[in-house]
Amino acid sequence: MALELLRGVIHPWHHDHFGHMNVRHYAPFFDDACYHMWTKLGLAYRDMLATHGVHTVTAQATTRFVAELQAGDLIEISGVVTKIGTKSCVFLFEMRHADTGALHATYEVVEVFFDPNTRGSTAMPDSVRAKLEAALA
Q: Rounded to an integer, what distance in angstroms lies between the CA atom of residue 96 and that of residue 9?
């Protein structure tokens, strides 16, 4: 089941010389949605390190642009967990028009569990895995 993560408004300063939202402005919306994803999964990112001894870093992010957005468009971003590995998980986000439901972009992100002491990837804690598995699409 997709979780609603974020709602936003496209403003004129998001536009480029072609008159639509420039690709550079999609990333902040999707990145913010990623933080909300952890909370919706019951794994508040602000508590990840203190509770589980790890946090995550984005190892890969792929944006697919489907339809342009213009100033005044309202968006909503939803997300699902699509894969769970030993040290990583994958989220898939969809950016849709809030009024029409039309798909405007997707964002697939690989989040790798990270040990700040070793500055390297580490195994996903079992307590985190259980919550991710419960949400697996």
A: 12
